[in-house]
Amino acid sequence: MDSVSKTDKFIFQTYQRQGKAFVKGEGVFLWDEDGKKYTDFLAGIAVCGLGHCHPKITEAICKQASTLVHVSNLFYTRPQADLAAQLCEKSFGDRVFFANSGAEANEAAIKLARRYFQKKGEKNRFKIITMLQSFHGRTMATLTATGQDKVKDGFYPLLEGFSYVPFNDFKALEKEIDETICAVMLEPVQGEGGIIPADAGYLAAVRELCTQKGILLIFDEIQCGMGRCGRLFAHQVYNITPDIMTLAKALGNGLPIGAMLATQEAALGFDFGSHATTFGGTPLATAAALEVLNIIGNDSFLSEVRQKGEYFKDQLLKLKEKHSRVVAVRGEGLLIGLEIDQDAAFFVRELMEKGFIINGIQDKVLRFAPPLIIEKTDIDKLVTALDNLF
Ligand SMILES: Cc1ncc(COP(=O)(O)O)c(C=O)c1O
What we know:
The chain has 390 residues and is of the alpha/beta class. The chain is built from 15 helices and 17 strands. The chain has helices at residues 3-10, 43-46, 55-65, 78-89, 102-119, 140-145, 149-152, 170-176, 200-213, 235-238, 264-267, 283-296, 299-322, 345-353, 376-387; strands at 22-26, 29-32, 37-40, 95-99, 127-131, 162-165, 181-186, 189-190, 196-197, 216-220, 244-247, 258-262, 326-332, 335-340, 356-357, 359-361, 365-368. Helices cover 39% and strands 19% of the residues. The radius of gyration is 21 Å and the shape is globular. The chain starts with a helix and ends with a helix. The strands form 4 sheets. The protein has a 7-stranded mixed sheet with strand order 4-12-11-10-7-5-6, with helices on both faces. Strands 1-2-3-15 form a 4-stranded mixed sheet. Bound molecules: pyridoxal-5'-phosphate. Pyridoxal-5'-phosphate is lined by residues 45, 101-103, 106, 135-137, 187, 191-192, 220, 222-223, 248. The site of pyridoxal-5'-phosphate has 15 residues, from helix 5.
């Protein structure tokens, strides 16, 4: 039985897969079982920021795998300590909790925000405001936090204490604030919602409001962080810092790792025993992430991401001028959405035929989240292929 039939027979059919089994990856390229080569403009949905099998990451993984793969979090390890210190040094964060995925990092953030106020004796302050169209994960708390009904279908009753407001609408948020709110949680650039960047003025106003009211501000940077938007962290594009930030996806370049960072003050919410995980921050995952951070955190690397992102957006804007079926081009850095006036599935399928991998979100948006090491020539080839499809 081939991989496709075997998968379809034995694995839960929760993913609408695209009929290809991949066997090899190198840089921005993937190869399928038939030996066909593809340029990857999705990077595992913003995961492989450094592309596939980056030699330095492979070396870090191999070295660590032959030294020490796992010990319990009841003990200390060097890679975990180094990664936490580096993340704090490069951000507003004072403390890090390591998880294994984005949803787990967000789960930790939600728990921290609630417990911070419980510990302060503010027992009624447990509600979290999130944004419509947001996406925060698939665990019960994070799907409750998510502002999209389709993710919640069939899972009621949900967790208590969440409300939702339209993104980039400050008045709506302000109206929702009262003394029961412990946190506001948002993605600086909404990913699954259709690649929608926050307005700079909006984000600044949200920060100010949260500070004024003593509410914790949580940024979910699971998709938009780790260099994706042209700065190491997306909030650095806006010059605004949250109290809590979550990371995952590109942090391990494909190894499962998530992280929740918090200020010293917010971190007071957790004590011994408040939260834990068996695998979070294994020596293997943190050794890989440390190398990732080393490369992506470099200023000249990030400046190239910004240049390539601008170039990519410019090329797509030219398509918009040329084809009336292009509705909008949005994004930051190399997280770009092209909204069209028809179902994205046709373009995803046709581009795959032509050797390009992208995906469609919210039915009519084409998402481009290539490895950050993508070259302008690769961008040109994709844009030409796209041009020919209109
Ligand atoms: C913004 C955001 N938050 C959370 C998640 C959930 O991450 P994971 O799938 O690793 O649980 C995702 C995944 O797409 C995401 O894009």
